[in-house]
Amino acid sequence: MNVIKIAWRNLWRNSRRTAITMASVFFGVILSVAMTSMQYGSYDSMIDNVVKFYSGYAQIFDRAYHENKTINNTMELTDSIRKTVQQTEGVTHIASRLEYFALASSDEITKGAMILGIDPIQESYVTDVAKWVEKGQYLKEGDDGVLVSVNLANYLKINIGDTIVLYGQGYHGVTAADLFPVRGILKFPLPELNNQMIYMDIGTCQRYFGAENRISSLVIMVDDHNDLPAVMRSLKASIKDPLTVMSWDELQPELVQMIDADRAGGVFTKIILYMVVAFGIFGTIIMMISERIRELGVTIAIGMQRFKMAGILFTETVLTGLLGAASGIIGSIPIVVYFYNNPIKLTGDAAQTMIDMGMEPLMYFSLSPFVFYNQAITVFFITVVIGVFPVYKAFNLKINQALKA
Amino acid sequence: MKVIEIKDLVKIYNSSEVQVKAVNGINLDFEEGEFAAVVGPSGSGKTTFLNMVGGLDRPTSGEVIVGGTNIWELKSRKLIDFRLRNIGFVFQAYNLIPVLTARENVEFIMHLQGRDKHERNQRVNELLTAVGLGERMESRPSKLSGGQQQRVAVARALASKPKFILADEPTANLDSKSTENLLDMMEKLNKEENITFIFSTHDARVVKKARRVITLDDGKVTSDEKK
Ligand SMILES: Nc1ncnc2c1ncn2[C@@H]1O[C@H](COP(=O)(O)OP(=O)(O)OP(=O)(O)O)[C@@H](O)[C@H]1O
Ligand SMILES: [Mg+2]
């Protein structure tokens, strides 16, 4: 006849009321799980998009390059750096990039362009550039041709097979001027990219800028963003000044701010939701205590210590919440799993905004364990706080008054 | 042998305007093996008196000495423990823990006392059989009649092997047949096991069975007859 056993039986003596209370927790938890899952699912897909659209999960570059993105601040990609990074536990791919400006001309027309030297094979594990090739072909390894973004190509009035002249300043002031055959036309979902991008093989790019073996950044991919903190820790330890390593969130502080703001909004909604649940539980506990005042008085009168009584009442309170939370979590799993596999399709303006940003117009759900255990912890804390009330009652009950109840 | 000594016991309730002297200077002794009734009109102080003797309601002044201990000098936890080990209680109604069976209700108090399982089982069987409920041990209180519930309450009060049993109007909610049954059973336990019973009542038939009748009026003892 221990505390749990008595508490358990008490829980079911007014089974309808207990069921109603648990149902309120159940629905609260389901709503909260669905909300949290959707939030975290959309953060994951946003991060994924940013990471896969441009920055990768992390980048290594020279500190000076982060301040001032000129070709003179690029870094040398030594074998030892390459090895260190490749051998870091959790790193799945690395891709080098060399990035700088040049003037692009065809016949009489000239325009500033952003030149991006990539490793055609490795880059496909980061940003799948091949996907955006609208006409022509993607770069081969060691290719001496270029891919030109669509608006720039139209402006320069060039097409596949034409030749483009690039003229600029290379490493340490050397003149960089050469002719490149156009292999393909790129069409990105983002207009700024369409206006200015020229892609070429990184070896070709290094020769063009006179920057043999130099890169502006080394992009790092991991399998799962949960691996990132560990990867960052070991890279931060092994990468030495003047080089530095930054993760996507350091590279994209605006995205982090946006997610944080959204998360704060979600927290507010959940506070309101759980307040409703909490008052439901609290109401039940108040009723339960007032109905049982006489019984509690008798029990202390015949010799039960108040702290034991407090233990029973506290356990009942926490059990009510936790059983409700457990059933809510179990009930929410099929719902969330369904939407995880069948993301909600957005329509209208929201969908268009996402398409414009190069994302699929889908609301993703997350199945991260956090989504679930977070609710259990929240309900647990709520019931612990509510449990203070019956504990207080147990310690302050006046027996002679309770016996008259 | 004296089980209880009561000296100058006073209880004054201070409600907002009026001061009620619920118990107004009672001096009494109880011997082992007594079968005593406390009677008196409504409001005469019976419940207040029994609650103070039982360690449930703190006196304004005076002493309740049980086995040499002034119980009202004990700290709150010690007092609960004292009740657990020395005093059996039977209240007017709803004595039992509703979620426990008759057996568990009786066992419960021995559990609190830390008795081992073997002793508990044996004593529960003995006691419930003695109060005539050997067949209903696994029933919850809601499945028992008022009289049966009161018998379980008596069995529970006995289970802790107390020095005496206090019962505030134990028959008030019972019909005359059940009242008679309960009283006969208490009388039998009193005679055969020498258990000390102190009970309050309004019922003339119950008073008739008592061997000592203490009459209260306005918080004072107006007569104390031994038969
Ligand atoms: N908590 C309290 N606050 C104020 N006055 C009280 C309180 N409890 C009892 N009284 C008063 O003390 C007096 C004695 O009450 P008590 O309950 O002891 O009488 P009783 O003899 O048991 O009556 P009954 O036969 O109706 O049960 C009454 O006047 C009552 O109103
Ligand atoms: Mg009374």
Question: How is this structure best described in words?
Answer:
The complex is a heterodimer of chains A (405) and B (227). Chain A has helices at 3-11, 15-55, 63-67, 79-86, 120-123, 150-156, 191-196, 202-209, 228-238, 248-251, 253-291, 293-302, 306-341, 348-356, 369-396, 399-404; strands at 58-62, 75-76, 91-106, 109-118, 133-136, 146-149, 163-169, 175-186, 197-201, 214-215, 217-222, 243-247, 344-345, 362-363. Chain A has 405 residues and is an alpha+beta fold. Chain A folds into two domains: 2-51 and 255-403, no CATH class; 70-215, no CATH class. In chain A, the strands form three sheets. In chain A, strands 3-4-9-6-8-7 form a six-stranded mixed beta barrel. In chain A, a hairpin with a 2-residue loop joins strand 3 (91-106) and strand 4. Chain B has 227 residues and is an alpha/beta fold. Chain B has seven helices and ten strands. Chain B has helices at 46-53, 76-86, 102-113, 117-130, 146-159, 176-193, 204-209; strands at 2-14, 19-31, 35-39, 61-66, 69-70, 87-90, 164-168, 197-200, 212-217, 220-226. In chain B, a hairpin with a 4-residue loop joins strand 1 (2-14) and strand 2. In chain B, helix 3 packs across helix 4 (117-130), helix 4 (117-130) crosses helix 5 and helix 5 (146-159) runs parallel beside helix 6 (176-193). The mean pLDDT of chain B is 92. Classes of the chains: A alpha+beta (405), B alpha/beta (227). Chains A and B meet through helix 1, helix 12 and helix 16 of A and helix 2 and helix 3 of B. Bound molecules: adenosine-5'-triphosphate and magnesium ion. Magnesium ion (MG) is lined by residues 46-47, 168 of chain B.
Can you give keywords for this protein?
heterodimer, A: 405 residues, alpha+beta, 2 domains, six-stranded mixed β-barrel, elongated, B: 227 residues, alpha/beta, Rossmann fold, six-stranded mixed β-sheet, four-stranded antiparallel β-sheet, binds adenosine-5'-triphosphate, binds magnesium ion
